[in-house]
Amino acid sequence: MRKPLLLLSVCATHAFAQSPVSTNPQQTALPSTEAAVNVTSAIQPMLLSGSDRSFVVLDPEATALLNDNVTDYLRMDASVNLQSRAGNGVQADLSIRGTTFEQSLVLLNGFRINDPETGHLNLDIPIPLEAISRVDVLHGSGSTFFGSDAIGGAINLITARPSRTSVTAKAGFGNYGSEEQHLQATYAASRFAGELAGSRDTSDGFMVDRGYHSNALSSETWFDLRPHPSSQSAPKDAWTTDLLFAASDRPYGANQFYGAYDSWERAKGWFASIQQQLGARTIGQFAYRRHSDLFVLLNDNPQYYRNNHLDGAWEGALRRTDDVRHDLSISYGLEADGDSIHSSNLGLHARNEEAGYVSVAYHPQGRFTAIAGAREEGLSGGRSVFSPSLAAGFSLTKTLRLRASAGHGFRLPTYTDLYYSDPASIGNPALKPETSWSYEGGLDWTPGGRYTFSATGFRLQQKNSIDYSKYTLAAPWQATNINDLNLTGAESSLHIRLPATQTLQLRYTAVQAAPPPPGLISEYAYNYAAQDANLLYTASFWKQWIAQTELGVIQRTGHTAYPLWDLSIARSSGRIKPYLRLMNLSGTGYEEIVGVRMQGRTVMGGLAYSWTRN
């Protein structure tokens, strides 16, 4: 079943290094390879055109009514594979470039929100989609900048200070008893701004015990301790305080999630952060995350078997960036973080880490750019991990650029990896941390303002990878370290700006792993998306409507390829905006996780109201 996807890959491929992916059909031009794409995060300002890394920038605000959750946008990146267990991204596993669901890092404004209990909950995002201004996706190792977990890549969900006062509300209904109600209110003044966002998504489910409730609420406030500088060269937010509080509550039926049982699960938590800029070049940060996970094996007999997990995590950092000269900058900082868990199954545990990092970027006006970084992270128990990285790029012409990078990655085992125990799965307290080296090389071609093409080849070499495996079907899954789990692949993309505010994006990613040891039965590590092709077409018409259609074809190792086709349309101007979303129009019967059926054709329609103060 590889031939259809390989044919599609001739024109559909993905890597978007140097140029962001935009879902806005009204963009005027695509940047050249010499254009600087300043992708900032709370971790540190990263001039990714200078770092020459493969990345994607997704813009939820451009198509706000055409998608309903973060996973919808992440599926637009063919190097990101989502494995959901229900609609609306309920308990979705995240994989980048064929790595396991534990090997990608999720950040919120640069703060880690990966769950220390299990990576199955990494996408239990505490804020509503309406509060997210941009999604940055880094392909390849990011441990130099972000620490543990960023072996396959990192995803940073970024909020933004509002520039106007507005209110937006929407309500919709669909099949399977689905409902959605979302609200966003913003206020903007000269030295103060605030945003309140809330979302409620529910469904009765397409089968017994597969309904869900997904609720999220966030409040973010920005205020300036000093008046804005009058100098145009000084940053306007040099002394800005940013306070964010968010909470989520998601109970859902878990039928088939972990076997042929009518199970039930509830994940809820809260997140709070403060960021304080200390002048133009220094920032102090602190965040705390609390999360609980209640699992009931038999919904009609909850006392038969249940697990209750409560975990917490904190993170603090002090960061600074200096310009040594006009073409040379240095970023450096100190970090400390810790997490803990109190669980009926995993026990009571805690650990702390501390780290220092430095990154030097050389970005002259000429053809060559380079960035080198290093991170030393101290772990509980006296161990430490050193994670260097190096990236460079060279412009052959004004429209053609070559790039290459290498970086070290690592991941600490989750508490489930270490301590979980039931008749079907057994953890391993003796697990070693995962380590890896990631290598990539690629090119970016921008022959004109209407086209952008990128291609990247990559290699991931891993040591002490963690997987649940066994050698006989009757044996329980056992968490073990495995070696030589090496991944080789390619990703490419073609972005075309068509006439009349239309865009066409074609992307393709292929990954192949070294074969497993003879007789080994793997639960996760060798069950990856070998090929992923994606076509996204977006258009504005009649000056007040926007439409989007997306066709994805995915082939997982050992399985037949399957297509997924979505279509959305919404009014883009005026106070009253009707919208309609049609998901899985092909009616494909498929499983993103083996044994967990996904729903068929899905319809959601409704109205949105927006008001903006002039």
From TrEMBL:
GO MF annotation list: siderophore uptake transmembrane transporter activity
GO CC annotation: cell outer membrane
Domain annotation TonB-dependent receptor-like beta-barrel: ranges: 242-590
Location of the protein in the cell: Cell outer membrane
Topology within the bilayer: Multi-pass membrane protein
Keyword Signal: yes
Record-linked InterPro entries: Beta-barrel_TonB, Beta-barrel_TonB_sf, Plug_dom, Plug_dom_sf, TonB-dep_rcpt-like
Swiss-Prot/TrEMBL keywords: Cell outer membrane, Membrane, Receptor, Signal, TonB box, Transmembrane, Transmembrane beta strand, Transport
TonB-dependent receptor plug domain: residues covered: 67-154
Gene Ontology BP term (one): siderophore transmembrane transport
Gene3D superfamilies: TonB-dependent receptor, beta-barrel domain, TonB-dependent receptor, plug domain
Pfam families: Plug, TonB_dep_Rec_b-barrel
The keyword Membrane appears for this protein: yes
Signal peptide from the UniProt entry: 1-17
Matching PROSITE patterns: TONB_DEPENDENT_REC_3
Top-rank lineage group of the source organism: Bacteria
Family (UniProt): Belongs to the TonB-dependent receptor family.
Protein's name in the database: TonB-dependent receptor
Lineage, broadest ranks: Bacteria, Pseudomonadati, Acidobacteriota, Terriglobia, Terriglobales
